[in-house]
Design goal:
about 325 residues; alpha/beta; Rossmann fold; 2 domains; 7-stranded parallel sheet; 5-stranded parallel sheet; about 15% strand; elongated
């Protein structure tokens, strides 16, 4: 058998079409460099890969599956017509989780050993032992979002002897490394007990602005906040104010409300901050991992089998 697939921007790559034809000889792959090109061929397509914008979705009369090449696309990807439709959406979650887990652990270890203090001192050529280290076996890490990334973070933190609390709206089974598992409604009770608050959640209607002034006031003044999920989950002005007021001890961020972070934003010079430019997922073999997942799902789709990484469209993940 076979099916018609439209590959849309920004994921138009010749090698992907070649690989697909190797495993599904009868597949009809249409590579479209522009939305305009895609609009000409998507009418009878069975599946699509890429950013299917509303005007493109309107033209698709036979669409059954959309594959998103990202784990968490930006707001607007899950538009109302798509949410209300019967079209299945899959995403690329699980392709970056190990790299991001390592990045989180780099933040945790840096804060535990005071790098957020000693790096500025180095730039000032100042020799001063001024930091009380955090003994990780005595510390509690609350991981907000126990998906593929959160699991990796939990295992790494546990390997350093940390106590792990998990916050997740869906998970019902507690991981062996996690001492407590709660829903998001428990955050006000959990935040005051946390030495590290690590956020891995995607951007959804429920998570936008999830961490703002109220949540930072609930945290210990000695606690550290880390976000590697999506920038929209954190109100950056509130975070910068919390840091300057000493409401929390530090923050490690890889994602931001606005990217790039504006050069005049107060977060750049806030005390106790470590910033990286949305690169926590960087690592070897990422394109191959993404392609392998998509090709496997194409085989599953062609054979009428269940797809991997099916999204709850209303929740965006």
């Amino acid at each position: 058998m076979g099916f018609k697939l439209v590959i849309c921007p920004p994921d138009v790559e010749e090698h992907l079409a070649d690989r697909l034809k190797e495993v599904i000889p009868d597949i009809d792959v249409q590579l479209c460099a522009t939305v305009g090109e895609a609009m000409e061929v998507i009418g009878d397509a069975d599946a699509a890969y890429g950013d299917i914008v509303p005007e493109l979705f309107e033209r698709a009369q036979n669409l059954k599956w959309i594959a998103c090449s990202r784990a968490g696309p930006p707001a607007g990807y899950y538009h109302q017509a798509l949410i209300d439709s019967e079209v299945v959406v899959t995403n690329a979650r699980g392709t970056l989780h190990d790299h991001i887990g390592v990045h989180v652990m780099a933040f945790v270890l840096a804060f535990a050993r005071g790098f957020q203090v000693y790096i500025p001192q180095q730039l000032e050529r100042t020799w001063r032992r001024s930091y009380d280290t955090v003994h990780l076996p005595d510390a509690t890490a609350t991981i907000v979002g126990l998906g593929a990334i959160g699991e990796q973070v939990a295992r790494r933190c546990y390997s350093f002897g940390m106590n792990i609390i998990g916050i997740d709206p869906r998970r019902v089974e507690r991981l062996p490394e996690v001492s407590e598992l709660h829903g998001p409604e428990a955050l006000p009770q959990v935040l005051p007990r946390s030495d590290f608050v690590i956020v891995t959640v995607p951007q959804t209607p429920e998570t936008q602005g999830m961490f703002a002034a109220t949540q930072f006031r609930q945290m210990k003044s000695s606690a550290f906040f880390i976000n590697v999920g999506r920038g929209a989950t954190v109100v950056l002005d509130d975070l910068a104010e919390a840091l300057r007021n000493g409401e929390i001890a530090g923050a490690g961020l890889d994602v931001f409300q606005v990217e790039p972070l504006p050069s005049d934003h107060s977060l750049w010079t806030a005390p106790g901050v470590l910033l990286t430019p949305h690169m926590a997922g960087n690592g070897p073999n990422l394109p191959q991992r993404r392609d392998d997942l998509f090709i496997e799902n194409c085989q599953r789709f062609n054979e009428g089998r269940e797809l991997r990484n099916v999204v709850d469209k209303a929740s965006w993940f």
